[in-house]
Write a structure and sequence with these properties.
By secondary structure, this protein is an alpha/beta fold. It contains ten helices and eleven strands. α6 links the parallel β6 and β7. α6 crosses α7 and α6 packs parallel to α10.
């Protein structure tokens, strides 16, 4: 059976908040060693959610996380395991989401962003700036089990709260958004500056990969392109930083 392992205080805590009842009791297990104040707080939360908690040795936690990527092996004395889960994202169906009428919404779509650290950082910004939906492609993206565990840790738990649609065809997803009245903004250094851009009530921001940007076919779906004015000597911003700035500007305009 597939198992997802969560490490890091934020990721563990946010996953517990999303898990409760009989299913959590049967699939989730919290393991801890040498509980400090923060771990005790999480243990209390897990207990209220019906999640069994077991004290183990530090060596046992080290063994458990040894299969994870090195950057998320620092468990800090607590690990949450979830049986039968292969994806830590808050998955939803795009078509069902689009069938819910809404006058104002923000969507962020990633095109070929393969670094899970960037995806996690973007999800964290999505949570902070009220993004309604996060869309990522099934192919050429950070999407396997280990990627999702890094995303959960890097996003500080936001991956469990921001609605996410994983689609087979990003171009078709953009078409569906446009059919529902969304205006598509592609992030591109040659676009209109953010201070001269007024985002629509229904906005989708597309971020391309750092290497090749937005693919040609997806670019053709964009209604306009938006750029971030900069003054540095290097070519561009990191994609997660750029996404955060664009989300902030969108959020600021909607206040």
């Amino acid at each position: 059976m597939k198992q997802t392992i969560y490490t890091g205080f934020h990721a563990v805590e946010e996953k517990i908040k999303k898990s409760s009842g009989d299913r959590a009791k049967n699939t989730c297990k919290l393991l801890y060693a040498h509980p400090g104040p923060r771990v005790k707080k999480i243990l209390e939360l897990a207990s209220k959610s019906g999640i069994p908690c077991t004290e183990v040795s530090e060596a046992e936690l080290n063994r458990l996380v040894s299969q994870l990527p090195k950057e998320i092996q620092n468990h800090r004395g607590i690990v949450l395991t979830v049986e039968g889960e292969s994806n830590s994202l808050n998955m939803i169906d795009l078509t069902q989401w689009l069938n819910t009428e809404r006058e104002h919404a923000t969507v962020v779509m990633l095109d070929s962003v393969t670094d899970p650290h960037n995806v996690g950082a973007i999800l964290r910004s999505c949570d902070q700036f009220g993004v309604d939906l996060f869309i990522i492609g099934q192919r050429r993206s950070a999407s396997d089990v280990q990627d999702n565990q890094i995303i959960a840790r890097t996003s500080a738990g936001a991956s469990t709260s921001v609605p996410c649609a994983v689609v087979t065809n990003l171009v078709r997803a953009a078409e569906q958004l446009k059919e529902k009245g969304f205006w598509i903004y592609g992030a591109d250094a040659r676009g209109t500056a953010t201070n001269k851009t007024s985002f629509a009530e229904k906005t989708c921001i597309i971020m391309g990969s750092e290497g090749s940007g937005i693919s040609r076919l997806l670019s053709e779906q964009c209604d306009t392109f938006v750029a971030i004015p900069t003054c540095g000597t290097i070519d561009s911003l990191n994609v997660s930083v750029a996404a955060g700035i664009l989300m902030y500007e969108r959020h600021r305009q909607s206040l």
